[in-house]
Every structure is written in structure tokens, then in C-alpha cells.
């Protein structure tokens, strides 16, 4: 019995290794309901001290949110889906990113 094994190899002439895209678990919650719970590539959040991007493996942190747009990237290089939020909090932990928003627009 032979097993086939797939091994990542350098991209010819590029000088770097291909790596599997890791998913970030993202949840968006309002006082009324759970709006989203899914795995995504990256989320850019409108923090009160400035925008910040969150990828899988981000250091744990918490931030208050300012009114603005959340950019949700389903995969690397994808066009982001934009949702507006009004106030709230963002928590990054080992479990992923949770945004507790006061209100959500489109």
C-alpha cells in the first residue's frame, strides 16, 4: 500500500514557499442577533485609535469601535464586503475575532 503525500515546494524563480491560507473565525453580533459567524481570510476593523487588520494568529487585543466600515475579505486577494457599524467593541482572541456592534448598516 502506497500513500501519496503532497509537499509544498518553492515557486520556481520566486524564492519563497507557498503556504496554505489560514482562516480567521469571525463573528459579528448586535444586541438583537448574531449577524455572522464564519471563517474568512481577513477583517479590517474601524478601531477608535485607527483601522486595524486581523488575520489568523493575530495577538489578543480589545478595542472600542468608531462609526465606520468593516471590510471582510473572504479569501486572499478577494474584493472586500463592506458593512457599516455604529459603535461597539472588537475582541481578538485565540478563537478569532468577535465584533459586538451597537448597530449594523449595509
Describe it:
The chain has 106 residues and is an all-beta fold. Helices cover 0% and strands 54% of the residues. The chain contains no helices and eight strands. Strands 1, 2, 3, 4, 5, 6, 7 and 8 form an eight-stranded mixed sheet that branches. It is globular, with a radius of gyration of 17 Å. It starts with 23 loop residues before the first strand and ends with a strand. The N terminus is likely disordered.
Secondary structure class reads mainly beta
**Overall geometric form:** globular
| Rg result | 17 Å
Question: First CA to last CA: what distance?
Answer: 54 Å
* Overall pLDDT level: 85
Q: Count the helices. How many?
A: 0
Low-pLDDT parts are 1-13
| Beta strand count | 8
Largest sheet: 8 strands, mixed
Q: Summarize the helix and strand pattern as letters.
A: EEEEEEEE
As a percent range, the share of strand residues is: over 45%
User: What percentage of residues falls in helices of 4 or more residues?
Assistant: under 10%
Please outline what is shown here.
Helices cover 0% and strands 54% of the residues. It has 106 residues and is mostly beta strands. A hairpin with a 2-residue loop joins strand 7 (81-93) and strand 8.
Main features:
106 residues
Helix/strand layout:
Elements (H helix, E strand, L loop, with lengths): L23 E6 L4 E7 L1 E6 L2 E6 L5 E4 L3 E6 L7 E13 L2 E9 L2
Parallel strand pairs: 1-8
Antiparallel strand pairs: 1-2, 3-4, 3-6, 5-7, 6-7, 7-8
Amino acid at each position: 500500500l502506497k500513500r501519496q503525500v503532497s509537499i509544498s515546494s518553492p515557486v520556481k524563480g520566486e524564492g519563497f514557499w507557498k503556504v496554505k491560507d489560514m482562516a480567521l473565525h469571525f463573528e459579528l453580533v448586535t444586541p438583537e442577533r448574531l449577524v455572522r459567524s464564519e471563517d474568512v481570510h481577513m477583517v479590517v476593523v474601524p478601531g477608535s485609535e485607527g483601522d486595524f487588520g486581523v488575520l489568523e494568529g493575530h495577538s489578543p487585543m480589545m478595542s472600542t469601535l468608531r462609526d465606520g466600515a468593516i471590510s471582510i475579505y473572504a479569501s486572499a486577494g478577494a474584493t472586500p464586503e463592506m458593512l457599516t457599524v455604529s459603535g461597539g467593541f472588537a475582541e481578538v482572541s485565540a478563537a478569532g475575532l468577535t465584533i459586538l456592534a451597537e448597530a449594523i448598516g449595509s
